[in-house]
Design goal:
The protein is an alpha/beta fold. The chain contains twelve helices and eleven strands. The longest helix has 24 residues, at about 265-290. It binds pyridoxal-5'-phosphate.
Length: about 350
């Protein structure tokens, strides 16, 4: 007799990581996971190497030094910051802290693939609210979806995979209309690439509201996707509960040291982010000139809403040596990366346009 697995897990979609190029194909670019094209800065590599000699020891479970540094940067008390193994773990902690069987979690769709997985994993029920026709969060519809069972609303801004952002005023008005006993999680994985890179929009709101949680990651702008580190800024009572459900020792000392070193390398990292933003604008302008009507992206990727032509689009990108993220029947998300990769995006999109895509 086989072990009985929770029956509700059968409804969980499997997370599809961005595909990697076939080995040895040197001219391929992986534009399917919104990673940074830059290897770690020398100062960050050094910090990682230093920690490598001590991996026979458990990491600092309380993430003390980095939490203090982060709290100082955000000007919030340390006990409101909770680190996790990537902000995916932070999001998971938040969901498991506020929602369980019979509870509803509202989020836009299409949005980040991890939301349905983590929501169902917690035993809660996802309530997916379709994006507007221009690929943005439909905030009025999300408000209308609130029921007595609602425990959490997730707002992903800029949104993965469409790149569209909720502007600060819209967000403030939205938060003001959500009943205060319902938690709002603002997932700002890409805020450094947005029009408000210095003051993450959610932060200002998160500091002031007892029901707002903000998730940030070191995977995208900081280029530490492989080390798995992110954090949430949460109200004190939520933060305390998040620590209870957190994976013990989930954040390695390598990740903690690399994040700390990244703070010290702010200027260089900001320069990298600015370059990616400039490249995004270059590619978006070229595609617009070519007749493409894309939603305006405030992230490190572009969304091509190809609908039925998505498969053809993915093949065309592949013929140009680009691995992109295709959502069949919906569209393609392509990460802005090295100059040559970006040039090829323009070429592939132009070819596709010529094919009537
Ligand atoms: C990439 C991403 C994250 C963060 O992922 P981690 O690597 O786990 O930190 C969170 N939210 C969204 C929307 C993302 O695209």
């Amino acid at each position: 007799m086989a072990v009985r697995v929770r029956a509700d897990l059968a409804t969980i979609p499997t997370y599809k990581p961005g595909r990697s190029p076939a080995q040895g194909a040197a001219t391929w670019f992986k534009l399917s996971s919104n990673e940074s094209p830059y290897p770690p800065l020398p100062s960050v590599s050094e910090a990682i190497t230093l920690q490598a000699s001590m991996v026979h020891r458990y990491p600092d479970a309380a993430v003390e030094e980095l939490t203090r540094a982060t709290a100082a940067r955000l000007q919030v008390p340390s006990d409101r910051i909770v680190f996790g193994a990537g902000s995916v773990e932070s999001i998971s902690q938040v969901i498991r802290t506020v929602a369980g069987a019979g509870d509803e979690v509202i989020y836009a769709w299409r949005s980040f693939e991890a939301y349905p997985i983590l929501t169902r994993g917690a035993g809660a029920t996802p309530v997916e609210v379709p994006l507007t026709a221009d690929h943005r969060h439909d905030l009025p519809a999300m408000l209308a979806a609130i029921t007595p069972a609602t425990r959490l609303i997730i707002v992903c801004t800029p949104n993965n995979p469409t790149g569209t952002a909720v502007n600060p005023q819209e967000l403030a008005e939205f938060v003001a209309q959500v009943p205060p006993e319902i938690a709002i999680l603002i997932d700002e994985a890409y805020y450094q690439f947005s029009d408000h890179p210095d003051a993450a929009v959610g932060l200002a709101i998160g500091r002031e509201h007892e029901n707002v949680i903000v998730a940030h990651t070191f995977s995208k702008a900081y280029g530490l996707a492989g080390l798995r580190i992110g954090y949430a800024l949460a109200p004190q009572n939520v933060a305390e509960a998040m620590r209870k459900v957190a994976l013990p020792f989930g954040v390695t000392n390598l990740a903690q040291a690399a994040a700390r070193a990244s703070y010290d390398a702010d200027a260089e990292l900001t320069q990298r982010v600015r370059y990616i933003v400039a490249e995004r604008e270059r590619v978006a302008s070229a595609l617009a000139a070519d007749g493409w009507r894309l939603p305006r992206s405030e992230a490190n990727f572009l969304w091509l809403p190809l609908g039925e032509a998505t498969d053809l689009g993915a093949r065309t990108f592949e013929e140009h040596g680009l691995i992109v993220r295709a959502f069949p029947g919906e569209g393609i998300r392509v990460t802005i990366a090295e100059d040559e990769a970006n040039d090829r995006i323009i070429e592939a999109a132009s070819r596709l346009k010529g094919q009537g895509g």
